[in-house]
């Protein structure tokens, strides 16, 4: 699971550098907020599942679905805070950065 998070972090860095070069500081910060909103909840979710895997009698399926719901809620919450707190948000950079970072995690399953 951590491999997917490392790939997301790498994709975020590359995307932020490109957005900073093309758009400027607004693009870099916008991609940074998108990366934070995607990577931080995924990291907490991975740590939570890792802690639950060795617990006897734990309902792994229920924990997975509850964790997934909390991950989505945290992502939406972080994005809402970022949008309210940074009024100079560059929307194309935010949306493109979010899409790239979220899809980078799938490469971990494709490339073993």
TrEMBL record:
Stated name of the protein: ATP synthase protein I
Keywords: Cell membrane, Membrane, Transmembrane, Transmembrane helix
Pfam families to which the protein is assigned, alphabetical: ATP-synt_I
Main localization, broad class: membrane
Top-level taxonomy: Bacteria, Pseudomonadati, Pseudomonadota, Betaproteobacteria, Rhodocyclales
Keyword Transmembrane helix appears in the UniProt entry: yes
Membrane topology category: Multi-pass membrane protein
Superkingdom of origin: Bacteria
Gene Ontology CC entries for this record: plasma membrane
Organism: Azonexus fungiphilus
Subcellular location: Cell membrane
Residue intervals passing through the bilayer: 29-47, 59-83, 89-110
Classification via InterPro entries: ATP_synth_I
């Amino acid at each position: 699971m951590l491999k997917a998070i490392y790939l997301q972090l790498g994709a975020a860095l590359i995307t932020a550098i490109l957005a900073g070069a093309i758009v400027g500081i607004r693009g870099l910060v916008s991609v940074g907020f998108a990366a934070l909103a995607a990577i931080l909840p995924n990291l907490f979710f991975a740590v939570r599942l890792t802690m639950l895997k060795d617990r006897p009698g734990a309902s792994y399926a229920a924990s997975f679905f509850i964790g997934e719901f909390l991950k989505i809620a945290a992502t939406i919450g972080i994005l809402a805070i970022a949008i309210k707190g940074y009024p100079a948000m560059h929307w194309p950079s935010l949306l493109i950065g979010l899409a790239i970072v979220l899809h980078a995690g799938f490469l971990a399953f494709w490339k073993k």
